[in-house]
């Protein structure tokens, strides 16, 4: 019996047309998804570093290379922040000047009605290159605007007048200072700081980070906190 000749086209069956088309669709989809992921990676939210320290953040002390960076989220009207300033951060700024980068970030709390106006005043001073001067004036004269007897002050007009005195002492153009205070850009800056704080899980002030790690002191006194913070900074400097 003769053997039928085989069709050379069908003798070796390869993948069907449906399989080939399906594979092509999968490859194209993978390429599209990969491209989307790459695009999203490039436009993703801020990294931990930029969340802690945006490119335009103010500094009270800087050092080339930023080997050690200390970021503080604070509230200008917060009594605990004022105490930290007096017993910890002001001395830190002085003693480690030129060795660390010190970055102040705003976190005005709702329980302190003048915290936001104070933050805006500091940001307005920053528009004229005098952020540090206003920052220090607000803390050095804390009792004159932040307190009313045993309670926190609540009069924004009285505070605004005090802030203008600080601005004049710092050598600011007062008219420009007033105009900048009304600018929505300043509120956006403070709102960004608050959003960054929330993203980092910061809910209270003062909260500090040393080289990206939250500083959590164990001591019960400000002297203990000061020693622990300096030890932490020294450890980073010695690396």
TrEMBL record:
Q: Which InterPro entries match?
A: Thioredoxin-like_fold, Thioredoxin-like_sf, Thioredoxin_domain
Gene3D superfamilies associated with the record? Glutaredoxin
UniProt domain Thioredoxin: residue ranges: 49-238
Q: Which GO terms describe its molecular function?
A: oxidoreductase activity
Transmembrane ranges? 20-39
Kindly state which keywords UniProt assigns to this record, in alphabetical order: Disulfide bond, Membrane, Oxidoreductase, Redox-active center, Signal, Transmembrane, Transmembrane helix
The UniProt entry's sequence similarity note says: Belongs to the thioredoxin family. DsbA subfamily.
List the protein's name.
DSBA oxidoreductase
- Source organism of this protein record: Saccharothrix espanaensis (strain ATCC 51144 / DSM 44229 / JCM 9112 / NBRC 15066 / NRRL 15764)
